[in-house]
């Protein structure tokens, strides 16, 4: 079974660990380069993206993680994690940099301020929430949304309700290759389908080396 790390510098690590376990992975909290080196995939939890960037650098994880992403490490970023995976941040402070990897522009705190945190039920066929299936439970906490995507980016979900004004139809879940990102927190409230898809992505990414071993 795949070992999936959860970046454990900030954010709701425990909830992601629980969701990954339920989705059939072996979770591993990651704080050190040696831990990053042994995971088959990594979850970037929510938090505060500029703080997480600083912590990543302080713990000597920023450059190694960038390298592993470039080598094809599957990574799932939620909320602040989505921002870290974005190639571009709209309205970012001049010194905010990201890991990047997904050809998209995100806007931080797009849904409004803390008091505007809310939940929605989304239709998302690629996440197992299509017609005839239960809608996806999505908790938004000072969430970003995606303003623009490149042509290699698959849009997995859009905001449903016009929450906080003008959010209707905004992109809130994307995938590009082995990178997955959601503006919301599926780990809160027991929504399992995003973690299940991610564990599948991690397992698929491991296949080539397994085949090499057996051939
Ligand atoms: N607002 C945070 C940021 O801009 C993200 C919030 C979250 O991760 N829940 O980084």
UniProtKB/TrEMBL annotation:
Positions of L-glutamine binding: 47-49, 108, 141-142
Pfam family, one: SNO
Single GO molecular function: pyridoxal 5'-phosphate synthase (glutamine hydrolysing) activity
EC number: 4.3.3.6, 3.5.1.2
Reaction catalyzed: L-glutamine + H2O = L-glutamate + NH4(+); aldehydo-D-ribose 5-phosphate + D-glyceraldehyde 3-phosphate + L-glutamine = pyridoxal 5'-phosphate + L-glutamate + phosphate + 3 H2O + H(+)
Record pathway: Cofactor biosynthesis; pyridoxal 5'-phosphate biosynthesis
Coiled coil segments of this chain: none
UniProt superkingdom: Bacteria
Example of a GO biological process term: pyridoxal phosphate biosynthetic process
Residues the record marks as active site: 79, 185, 187
Cited SUPFAM superfamilies: Class I glutamine amidotransferase-like
Database matches in InterPro entries: Class_I_gatase-like (IPR029062), PdxT/SNO (IPR002161), PdxT/SNO_CS (IPR021196)
PROSITE patterns reported for this sequence: GATASE_TYPE_1 (PS51273), PDXT_SNO_1 (PS01236), PDXT_SNO_2 (PS51130)
Keywords: Glutamine amidotransferase, Hydrolase, Lyase, Pyridoxal phosphate
GO cellular component: cytosol; glutaminase complex
PANTHER family in UniProt: PYRIDOXAL 5'-PHOSPHATE SYNTHASE SUBUNIT SNO, PYRIDOXAL 5'-PHOSPHATE SYNTHASE SUBUNIT SNO1-RELATED
Assembly with partners or alone: In the presence of PdxS, forms a dodecamer of heterodimers. Only shows activity in the heterodimer.
Family of this protein: Belongs to the glutaminase PdxT/SNO family.
Job description of the protein: Catalyzes the hydrolysis of glutamine to glutamate and ammonia as part of the biosynthesis of pyridoxal 5'-phosphate. The resulting ammonia molecule is channeled to the active site of PdxS.
Protein name, entry field: Pyridoxal 5'-phosphate synthase subunit PdxT
Organism listed in the record: Georgenia thermotolerans
């Amino acid at each position: 079974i795949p070992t999936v790390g959860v970046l454990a510098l900030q954010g709701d690590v425990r909830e992601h660990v629980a969701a990954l376990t339920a989705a059939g992975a072996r979770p591993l909290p990651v704080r050190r380069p040696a831990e990053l080196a042994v995971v088959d995939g990594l979850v970037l939890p929510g938090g505060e993206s500029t703080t997480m960037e600083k912590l990543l650098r302080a713990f000597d994880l920023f450059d190694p993680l960038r390298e592993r992403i470039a080598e094809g490490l599957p990574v799932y970023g939620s909320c602040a994690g989505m921002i870290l995976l974005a190639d571009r941040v709209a309205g970012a402070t001049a010194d905010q940099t990201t890991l990047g990897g997904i050809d998209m522009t995100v806007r931080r705190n797009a849904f409004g301020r803390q008091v505007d945190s809310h939940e929605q039920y989304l239709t998302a066929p690629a996440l197992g929430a299509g017609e005839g299936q239960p809608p996806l439970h999505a908790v938004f906490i000072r969430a970003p949304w995606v303003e623009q995507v490149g042509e290699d980016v698959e849009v997995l979900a859009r905001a449903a309700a016009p929450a906080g004004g003008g959010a209707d139809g905004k992109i809130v879940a994307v995938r590009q290759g082995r990178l997955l990102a959601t503006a919301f927190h599926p780990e809160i409230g027991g929504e399992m389908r995003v973690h299940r898809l991610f564990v599948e992505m991690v397992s698929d990414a491991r296949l080539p080396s397994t085949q090499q071993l057996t051939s």
